[in-house]
Amino acid sequence: MDCETIRPLLPFLLRAAGELDEQERQAAEGHLRVCPACASRLQAESRFDAAIQKAVVRGDVPAGLKDRILDQLARSRRASMWRWTAAGTLAACLLIGLGLYAAFVWRGPELPPVDLNALSGSLSQARSPDQVEEWLDYSAPSALGLPSQLRDRWDFNLLEHHYVQYVHGHAIPTLVFRKDHHRTKVYLLKQGQYRPADVAEVFDPADPSRPWKLGGDGVNEYAAVAVRERGDWKTFLLAP
Amino acid sequence: MLAFSPRISVAELVERYYASLYRYAYRLSGSQADAEDLTQETFLRATAKLGQLRDADKVRAWLYSILRHAYLQRQRSAPQTHHVSLDDLFDVAEEVPDPLPELDAEALRKALDDLPEPHRTAVLLYYFEELSYREIAEVLDVPIGTVMSRLARARGYLKARLLTSEAVASSPKGRSADGL
Questions:
Q1: Which residues of A touch B147 (CB under 8 A)?
Q2: Which of A48, A49, A75 is the best residue to mutate to test the B interface, defined by the most B CB atoms within 10 Å of its own CB?
Q3: Beta-strand pair A221-229/A182-190
Q4: Where are the alpha helices (H) located in chain B, listed in sequence order?
Q5: What is the pLDDT of residue B40?
Q6: What residues make up the domain containing B155?
Q7: What confidence score (pLDDT) does residue B79 get?
Q8: Is the ipTM of this complex over 0.85?
Q9: B91 and B71: one domain?
Q10: Residue B140 maps to a domain
Q11: Which of B43, B108, B178 lies nearest to residue A61, judging by beta carbons?
Q12: Which residues neighbour B54 within 8 Å (Cβ) at sequence distance 6 or greater?
């Protein structure tokens, strides 16, 4: 190794290990032993490095810096605790809200829709109370799962009209009975499709003193809902 | 108080390292205000990451790396300032007096401030963090040849700036306002 070759390597020799591989280090050290000029240069580099290193790590530290750092860390910790407390409170409120919702509002999973549209066609074609009765006897049981004796509950002489009402996008067969000044509206619903509990007034139009909501024939179940009104029809929401 | 680790608390970290971190920050930024901000930011980040510290023996290097990242992050978002060109200084060969008097702290600060940021960071990684060339290359994610080049140019520049009769202080100026 000559002087030209060793010059760029001198900085790598300033530290004990890690900069040069063993072969290069041995070659460089061999040259330094026989070349006073390069050895002197290395010593000069080393003196300069030591001076820089000493100067660079030296310096004034502002008075009170440690206390300011500790204060800031304490403030940050308090702020962090506040954030966690606020987040915890918010989470607790959400949980309580969800609990209340589950307890008082949400009654169960959303029920699958029932295709009542197909049913509406046949009821719409019924032109007389007899045809409605027939529909209730032959079409509704299979399509809606209504019991065949359902018609026995009502006096079809009181049937004023029938139609299909759309509720929540479903075609709901609807019968309207009238006795004196009272009108009774009957929605024919498959049990489980809507929650009758949401309906305030439910009664048997054939016997207004005996309200009912649910029925069944042992095999099929139904929910029939009627709303009695004077004058204008009262609407209500059927919760799906 | 402020205990986040079973082995070391943040208060202990502050006690042991705040002065050296401040000095490092001062060398990097060249400003007392920035150095103080960086030091505080370092401890805030360290507090959040203390759980990640696996080797308590490397806490000093860990804190330095946090500070360095914070500094480089600021550098990237800050407008670039003018620095000297080192192109002509590669082959400057200053004679190094023997013995070499203590270097003037203010002259060193100004010289470091004038260095382009990549060179200043390399110099401080070498002299302050005492990393090897290879380690510097890994930290800066540059080839080792780039590290050699940056350090050689920076060293030549510092020699030119500091090895003058005006820059070599006749007596140390170190005063420690905090008893350090």
A1: none
A2: A48
A3: antiparallel
A4: 10-29, 32-49, 59-77, 105-114, 117-127, 133-140, 144-162
A5: 93
A6: 87-162
A7: 62
A8: no
A9: no
A10: yes
A11: B178
A12: none
